[in-house]
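Both lines are given unchanged directly below:

***
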Amino acid sequence: MIKYGRMKEKGFTLIEVMVSIAILSVGITALIQLFGGSLRSIGFSENYTKAAIAAEAELRNTLSAEKLKETSYTKRSGSGYTYDISIERIDKEKTDPLQYELFSVTLTINWKAGLKSKNYTLKTLTARKKYDLLKTS
C-alpha cells in the first residue's frame, strides 16, 4: 500500500531564516563597534606615547645643562607641542652648607588631539654643584 499525504520536507521556514539574519546582524554590528572603539583607543595611546617621548627628550635636554637656575618658561616645538618648564631650587636651608644644590624640574607638555587639549607632566629632582672644588696636588 502506498500512503498518500504530505511529504516531509526538510529545510527552514521563512521566519527561522529572518530570525537568524537578525541575530547575525546584531552580532556583526557589535563586533564593528568593538573594532571602532579599539581603533580610537589605539589612536589616543599613540598620541600619549608620542607626547611622552617628546617630553622625556625635552626634559633630558633641560637636565643636560651644566648649571641650572630657578626659572619658569614656555617653549613651542615645530611638531605642535608646547612645553611648560619650571625649575625650582628646593631645601635651600639644608643644602646651603653643602657643595650641591637640589632642584625640582617639572615639565608639562601640551598638545591638541582633535578638538580637545591634552597634557602630560613629568617631574624629577636633580643635584648640581654650587662651585668647583680647589684641586690640590
